[in-house]
TrEMBL record:
The keyword Signal applies. Residues 116-200 form the MucB/RseB N-terminal domain. This is MucB/RseB N-terminal domain-containing protein. Residues 1-26 form the signal peptide.
C-alpha cells in the first residue's frame, strides 16, 4: 500500500526552499521522432527495476543536487544522502540542516527507487528503453530513456553500472527542456552484503484508495485523474482533518491537500497572488510548484514534482468556486498546512 506520511512528503519539497534565478535549461534530445521497432518495447524497464532494488538494498552515501526550473526562475537544494540496508534512507538538506528518514520511492527520497506499482503506472503511460552507455558522477552508467507516445524524451535516468542506485534523473518538458534534475556529484557505494534471498524483495507499493467510498459518502469530491495522465494513487483523510490526494504518471507526482475552511491571505508571507483563468491563486516558489487557493468553503494546497505545464494543468483542473465571505480567516487549516511545508522558516 502506498501511504505517504505528510511530514515525509512535505519534507521532500525542500527542493523548493532555496531560490536562484535562471531560465529553464534547454537540451537537445537524441530522440527527434518516434522510436524504431527495436525501441517499441520497454527494454529499459528491467534496468530501472534493478536500479530501484539496488537503491533500497545497497549501502551508499553521497551529495545530491536537486534543481527545479520554472517560468519565473529556479529552486535548488543540496542534499546529503545516506542509505543503510535495513535501516533505510536518510536525507539531510543544506543549509537548513533538516534531516528526514524517507522511502526512496517517494518525493522525500527523490523518486529514485519507485515501487512496483509506480513502475506499472510508468509502463502504462510511457515506453522505457535502454539508451546505451553513459557516465554520471564520474561513474560508468547505463542510460535509460522514458519516451512519450510521440517518441520525445520525457525523462532520462543514469543507472550505476556497479549495481548501485540511480546516479541522475532528469525530467523534460514537451519542448525538450530539463525542468527537474536530481544528480549525485559524489557517491560512495559500499560492497554488497550477503543476502538471505537470491532476489531482493521489491516493495509492491499498492494503491491507497480504500478510503474513497467513505470520503465520497462524507461529501468530499475530487477527480480520479488529472491532465497529463496523472492517475490517483492515494486518497485518505488525515487525523488533522485534511484530505490528502496523490496523483502520478509514474514520473511526476502532484500532491493535493484539501482543508475545510476559508483562506487568510494575511498569513501568506512570501507568497504572491496570480490570476489564472479568472481565479486567484497564491504561488510561493518561482518554479510554480507550490500553490494555494480557496474554493467553495475549502482551501486547496498543491505541491508538484512535475513539469510546469503539467503542474499548471493540474491546478486548473481542480475546483475553483466562489469563496464565501471573501477571504475570511481560516484560524487553523491552511495556516497549519503552511507551517508544515516550509522547513526553512
Amino acid at each position: 500500500m502506498i501511504r505517504l506520511p505528510v511530514t515525509l512528503l512535505l519534507a521532500a519539497l525542500m527542493v523548493l526552499g532555496l531560490v536562484t534565478g535562471g531560465p529553464a535549461h534547454a537540451v537537445r534530445s537524441s530522440q527527434t521522432g518516434p522510436p524504431d521497432d527495436a525501441e517499441s518495447e520497454d527494454t529499459g524497464l528491467a534496468l530501472l527495476r534493478d536500479a530501484a532494488i539496488a537503491g533500497r538494498t545497497r549501502g551508499y552515501s553521497g551529495t545530491r543536487y536537486v534543481t527545479v526550473w520554472g517560468a519565473s526562475g529556479t529552486a535548488s537544494v543540496v542534499q546529503e544522502v545516506h542509505n543503510a540496508p535495513g535501516a533505510g534512507l536518510t536525507v539531510r538538506a543544506e543549509p537548513s540542516g533538516l534531516t528526514q528518514s524517507a522511502d526512496p520511492g517517494t518525493l522525500a527520497g527523490g523518486m529514485s527507487s519507485p515501487s512496483e506499482t509506480m513502475l506499472e503506472v510508468l509502463a502504462r503511460n510511457y515506453r522505457v528503453v535502454d539508451a546505451g552507455e553513459g557516465q554520471a558522477c564520474g561513474r560508468p552508467a547505463r542510460l535509460v530513456h522514458v519516451l512519450r507516445t510521440d517518441g520525445t524524451v520525457a525523462a532520462r535516468y543514469w543507472l550505476d553500472r556497479a549495481a548501485g542506485p540511480v546516479l541522475r534523473r532528469d525530467l523534460l518538458d514537451a519542448r525538450g527542456r530539463i525542468v527537474h534534475t536530481a544528480a549525485f556529484v559524489d557517491l560512495t557505494v559500499r560492497p554488497a552484503t550477503p543476502a538471505r534471498h537470491t532476489v531482493p524483495a521489491m516493495p509492491a507499493g499498492g494503491l491507497d484508495l480504500a478510503e474513497i467510498p467513505r470520503l465520497r459518502a462524507a461529501g468530499w469530491h475530487f477527480p480520479t485523474a488529472l491532465p497529463g495522465r496523472l492517475e490517483l494513487f492515494a486518497a485518505h483523510r488525515a487525523a488533522a482533518g485534511h484530505v490528502y490526494l496523490g496523483y502520478s504518471d509514474g514520473l511526476s507526482v502532484v500532491s493535493v491537500f484539501i482543508q475545510p475552511g476559508m483562506l487568510d491571505e494575511e498569513r501568506l508571507r512570501d507568497w504572491h497572488a496570480e490570476r489564472r483563468n479568472g481565479h486567484t491563486i497564491w504561488v510561493r516558489d518561482p518554479a510554480g510548484q507550490e500553490t494555494i487557493w480557496a474554493s467553495g468553503g475549502h482551501v486547496y494546497t498543491v505541491f508538484a514534482d512535475a513539469p510546469a505545464d503539467m503542474a499548471d494543468a493540474a491546478v486548473a483542473a481542480l475546483p475553483h468556486e466562489p469563496v464565501p465571505d471573501l477571504w475570511a480567516r481560516l484560524g487553523r487549516g491552511a495556516a497549519r498546512v503552511l507551517s508544515w511545508v516550509n522547513p526553512f522558516e
